Amino acid sequence: RFGIGDISEGEVKQIVEVDDSMLYYEFDTLMNVQLSESLPIISMQHDFLQRDFVSVEKEFLALINKLTGANKSFKSVGIDWCKGKWLAVCLSDNGFEVDKFNSIDEICCRYANAESILIDIPIGLVKDRIQTRPDKIVKRLLGRKGSSIFETPCRQAVYANSDAAAREQNINILGKSLSAQSLGIVKAIRQVDEFLQNNPEWKNRLQESHPEFCFMKLNNNNPIMENKQEWEGQEKRLRILEHFYPEARSVVQKYLADVPYRKKIDDVIDALSYTP
Questions:
Q1: What residues contact 94, with CB distance under 8 A and at least 6 apart?
Q2: Distance CA 266, CA 105 (A)
């Protein structure tokens, strides 16, 4: 099916060794039974947490579709900036995908036929005080949670050569300085802006959103005041997401399984809020 052709005896031996190693650790972990005296080499940490059959089946089928290129009926995609990379969650009729990407180009190429793609990055940069953005409206709707929306830099500041120059440009043009949080996403803002400038067909397809605004809408127009980086806030958000998408926790589990060293899950929860 994948055009690999016949495999060699050495490759068959490797497959058998991998299979035997998996079997050894399954018996050792789940039944406390050692199948042999020799200990197979561990090449990765295994996740033996129990999951329901339905979510496993959906994930399995989604992986098959991803590998074979079959049935690319992607429905909605949520994107979040995550420490220099992009985190994307995609929901479709066949399940979900959650993955990290190096660029916006990669995501838009992967999900070119998605019905909805929302991203937590400012789109549409002002060049003077006459031009406006929707930030103030959303802040007002969010009430006390409005502080979660950072000041959007002007276009000149986004393309400045340094943080100091960006602050100076923003003060000169908009009369406001920029916080560390705003400066922290300048690189991401510039990447999205350049992508849209170079790919005009994506304008009004790749659309801006904000997680706290999405959660407010999903929560009957009530902002969620609990901190999203703490357990209580994450639990509340996951319970809301489960009401619209029952597999919400499976998305988070898959994300953690792929990056076991990462314990911070607010980014994947934010990305998931754009998809229900």
A1: 58, 61, 62, 65, 71, 73
A2: 23
C-alpha to C-alpha distance for 156 and 39, rounded to whole angstroms: 60
118 within 8 A of 79, measured Cβ to Cβ: yes
Q: How many other CB atoms are found less than 10 A from the CB of residue 22? A: 12
pLDDT at 46: 75
CA gap 61, 38 in Å, rounded: 35
Amino acid at 65: N
pLDDT at 66 over 80: no
Question: By C-alpha distance, which of 228, 192, 195 is closest to 208?
Answer: 192
CA terminus-to-terminus distance, the chain = 34
Per-residue pLDDT of 29-51, as tens digits, reads 889 999 988 888 887 777 777 77
How many CB atoms neighbour CB 102 within 10 A?
10
Q: How far is CA 63 from CA 60, 94, 211, 256, in A?
A: 5, 10, 27, 17
**Cβ neighbourhood burial of 45 (10 Å; 0-12, 13-18, 19+):** exposed
Give yes or no for a contact between 176 and 170, defined as CB atoms under 8 angstroms apart. yes
pLDDT at 48: 78
DSSP-derived letter for residue 145 is G
The answer to whether residues 221 and 192 touch, using CB atoms and an 8 Å cutoff, is no
Sheet-wide strand order for 95-101 = 95-101, 85-92, 74-82, 116-119, 206-208
Reduced to 3 states, what is the DSSP secondary structure of residue 228? coil
What pLDDT band is residue 1 in, cutting at 50, 70 and 90?
Answer: low
Instruction: Name the token pair of 154.
Output: 């002007």
**Three-state secondary structure call for residue 108:** helix
